[in-house]
Design a protein that fits this description.
The structure holds two protein chains of two kinds. Chain A is an alpha+beta fold. Chain A has helices at 15-19, 45-54; strands at 2-5, 24-26, 33-35, 60-63. Chain A has one domain (2-63): Alpha-Beta Plaits. In chain A, the strands form two sheets. A two-stranded antiparallel ribbon of chain A has the order 1-4. The relative contact order of chain A is 0.35. Chain B has a single domain, classed as Cytochrome p450, CATH 1.10.630. Chain B is 46% helix and 7% strand. Chain B contains 15 helices and ten strands. Chain B has a five-stranded mixed β-sheet, sandwiched between helices. Classes of the chains: A alpha+beta, B alpha+beta. At the A-B interface, α1 and α2 of A face α3 and α15 of B.
Chain lengths: 66, 408
């Protein structure tokens, strides 16, 4: 799984950080998403999928190939 | 298939008025007419106070899709925007009624203090506020009004601390906020109340400019100094954060408590658990079930949009009724049952799209602390009035109870 985030779309709701704190964080100055791990381990995939699904701004994109 | 005809518009008499009225004796459930509209179809028409007939979007999937669609606008001054009251100069309460890029520019100025880690660091301070208010309640007379003694002070104290607003002024800002969000407030009254709050925040901004502290208003004052923000916009943001920061959570605390007292098996599960995940899950379920924002998320279409076999025309108004969306059986099986063990995480109680509630992480934490503390410390807590005697906020754009007499 490869994760990409769109900092322009992000509205800083922070739900991804609540759900998958190993993969997502927020910038200190404006709360916008920080990607900590672009290729998370398999054990985190379910949480990352949930984070992408609840992101209100569609700012998290997943590519599941390979 | 796309239908460019809206059958309902040929029979204007059949278009129901919105907002709708809840059934007597069912204070936790959405209005029956809203349920009927959901069964009728994902998009139907309703009639507003001004005679306009925007689309009512009743199902979860279409609500999420439209709220996240960049072709819909939150700008209250756009033609077709289905406003809940006449639009006046003071209607535009900061960035919630603006579109990007200006919305994002302003919102990002106040996002950092609501970030997950910053909010988590507030846990001990919020726990202390909650514990002390419960101490006071237990030491005082009973029955007591839970709204006045607990539900309103908790979020008010927290948002005052965060913003740098003196809590001593709480009667002033709570009363004016109440006027702003009452459905039957006249435009003149609403304007006057918003004006009072804006004047108050403007004065406070002056104090923060002269003598900054470690709070959000002082951070906004810095932005005024650097030329990023006008003093008027800063005061407007302060009004928005102050109202949104206390009214909503206060209603979730009081109405949530009443809903739990009416569902003793659910209350027992919550009271007896040490599992933080169950507490968090209960908060999500109560947000889904109660839907205190029962005035719908309102938007105007900027372009033609095809969805669920309907063609929404550019300039059409849209009301995403999240109260019935969160009771959509397609999204939440057995939707009218309060079940704190269900996975309700994907609810739209905080809205969806880039306008989704800025303070949701703080709201969640406050509710988790309240729900995991109050019933444990007062295990015999119970209403001191019959359900029929409790005054519900049927006339509020934010739903809840005006008073909740409790004893133990």
């Amino acid at each position: 799984m490869k994760v990409t985030v769109d900092e322009v779309k992000c509205c800083g709701a922070g739900q991804c950080v609540l759900i998958a704190p190993e993969v997502f964080d927020q910038r200190e100055d404006d709360g916008i998403v920080l990607l900590l791990d672009a290729e998370p381990a398999e054990g985190l995939h379910a949480a990352v999928r949930e984070a992408a699904a609840v992101c209100p701004a569609a700012a998290i994109e997943l590519s599941e190939t390979g | 298939m796309t239908s460019t005809l809206n059958p309902a518009s040929e029979h204007p008499a059949e278009i129901p008025e919105y907002p709708m009225t809840r059934a007597a004796g069912c204070p936790f459930d959405p209005p029956p007419t809203l349920r009927a509209k959901q069964q009728e179809g994902p998009l139907t028409k309703v009639r507003l106070w001004d005679g306009s007939t925007p689309w009512l979007v009743t199902r979860y999937a279409e609500q999420r899709a439209l709220l996240a669609d960049p072709r819909v606008s939150s700008d209250i001054t756009r033609p077709g925007y289905p406003s809940s009251a006449p639009v006046t100069g003071s209607s535009k309460v900061s960035f919630i009624l603006m579109d990007d890029p200006e919305h994002a520019r302003l919102r990002r100025m106040v996002t950092a203090p609501f970030a997950v880690k910053r909010v988590a660091a507030m846990r001990p301070a919020i726990q202390k506020i909650v514990d002390e208010l419960i101490d006071d309640m237990l030491a005082g007379p009973k029955p007591v009004d839970l709204v006045e003694a607990f539900a309103l002070p908790v979020p008010s104290l927290v948002i005052c601390e965060l913003l740098g607003v003196p809590y001593a002024d709480h009667d002033f800002f709570q009363d004016n906020s109440k006027t702003v969000i009452k459905r039957d407030t006249t435009p003149e009254q609403r304007s006057a109340a918003l004006g009072q709050l804006a004047g108050y925040l403007n004065d406070l901004m002056g104090e923060k400019l002269a003598d900054p502290g470690d709070d959000m208003l002082s951070q906004l004052a810095e932005r005024i100094k650097s030329g990023e923000l006008s003093r008027q916009d800063a005061a407007q943001m302060g009004v928005l954060l102050l109202i949104a920061g206390h009214e909503t959570t206060a209603n979730m605390i009081a109405l949530g408590t009443l809903a739990l007292l009416e569902n003793p098996d659910q209350l027992a599960l919550l009271r007896d658990t040490d599992d933080e995940r169950l507490v968090a899950s209960a908060v999500e379920e109560l947000l889904r079930y109660l839907n205190i924002t029962h005035n719908g998320r309102r938007r105007a279409a900027l372009e033609d949009i095809e969805i669920a076999g309907q063609l929404i025309r550019a300039g059409d108004g849209l009301i995403m009724a999240n109260d019935i969306g969160n009771r959509d059986p397609e999204a939440f099986p057995d939707p009218d049952r309060l079940d704190i063990q269900r996975d309700a995480r994907r609810h739209v109680a905080f809205g969806f799209g880039v306008h989704q509630c800025l303070g949701q992480t703080l709201a969640r934490l406050e509710l988790q602390i309240v729900y995991s503390t109050l019933y444990r410390r007062i295990p015999t807590l119970r209403p001191a009035a019959d359900l029929e005697q409790i005054p519900f906020k049927h006339d509020g754009s934010v739903y809840g109870v005006y008073e909740l007499p409790v004893t133990w």
